[in-house]
Structure formats: C-alpha cells, structure tokens
Design brief:
The chain starts with 7 loop residues before the first strand and ends with a helix. The chain is elongated, with a radius of gyration of 20 Å. The protein has 242 residues and is α/β, with parallel strands linked by helices. A nine-stranded mixed beta sheet has the order 2-1-3-4-9-8-7-5-6, sandwiched between helices. The chain contains seven helices and nine strands, in the order E-H-E-H-E-H-E-H-E-E-E-E-E-H-H-H.
Amino acid sequence: MSTIHLDKILILDFGAQYTQLIARRIREIGVYCEIWAWDHDPAEIAAFGAKGIVLSGGPESTTEQDAPRAAQEVFDSGIPILGICYGMQTLAAQLGGSTEAADAREFGHAEVEVIASDALLHGLSDHAGASRLDVWMSHGDHVATAPPGFVVTARTDRIPVAAMANEDKRWYGVQFHPEVTHTRQGQALLRRFVAEICGCRTLWTAANIIDDQIVRVREKVGADEVVLGLSGGVDSSVAAAL
C-alpha cells in the first residue's frame, strides 16, 4: 500500500444521512478514509489497520433490545474512537452508561456549553470569553449517564451529556454533528481527532493522489501497451492523462 493510504480512518455507518459527509470532511483534511456498514465482518475491521474509528449517527434507538451495536473488535483495537450522535449513544450503552428517549426530537441549532477540557474540545469556542459552541443537533434519544471511565465534557440546556471523553483510551462522543457546516467548529474538531488524537498525517491530497496513481499505473502496465477508450468526458480524459 502506498504512503498516502497508510494513515487512514474507518467510518462505521449506522445509517445516518450524514455519513458520506463525515467521509468528505475527513478527506478534505487530507486523510484517507473508508465507510463500512456497522455490521461489517469484525475480523476485517480488526485487520483494516485504521488509526481511528468513527461511529456515525443513525435512525435507530439504543433503547431497543435489537439496536445496532459496534463489534467488540472496535473496542479491542486500542485505537481512538469518535462516536457521533447515535455513535455516541451506542458507545455509552455498550460500555455501561445509559441512554433515554427525549420528550421531543431535537433538530436544528443548539448551543453547547463545554464544562470539562479534553483533547477534542479544548479551546474551541464560538463565543468570546465563554466555552460555548454553536452546533447542529438531529436526534431523538440522548445519553443520560456516561459510562465508567468517561467524563462529561459538554452539555446543553436540554441534555445533560452533549459530549463525553475517556482520555486514557482516547474514546470520545459528541451528540451534535461536527460534519455539517452549521456546527461552526466542526471541521476543527474533526481535524483534532484525525490529525492530533489519531496521529494521521495529512498526505491524502490531490497532488499526492495523482503521483500515487501514476506509480500504480506504471507498476500495472509495465512494458505492455494500453487500450484506452477516450470519450472526451472527464473520467476518460483523466485516465488518459494518467
């Protein structure tokens, strides 16, 4: 595998409408990532070699007995984890915390108060002189109590656990959606997770991808010749240039 693919993030998809956007944001940072279903073969999850795992949001409820769950291999991996929305809820439910259904679904802008410093949220603020973030919420359930080993790092007027962290294990959860532009510090938060907490180098750039593809083509073709169907469209023109 080429250098630009060595530092990578695995996103486990629990059916969220924003999962592709999480991947886009991480790739914009310059880190390679892939999206797999939450129930993907656990052995392949363990063997993937990710430097960090993101658990996406989703439409299900962790209060239901047959709710989707992350494989045990995710927690056994020893790598950083970021749970977003449902991902945070299953993180809490599976590790000994609790979740509950809210009296009303929360969808839209919210203001989060950061109440404890951690590697993910430290210093982030949208309000001068106050540790408060403008974020985007989209959920029905929420975490009621954080699991053992976790510290509640943020709250809102409506929910007691808007973010939580286990710094020793480098596991984090946020109820809001950092991948959408309405969460003003969202990209900074994701960059902190993938680049600082996970230690990924930001090598997955357009220029490096071109160089990588040229090397791959040369290795595959060798001294042979290529038959190229050139329509004049973007895809075939790029293939021809490479």
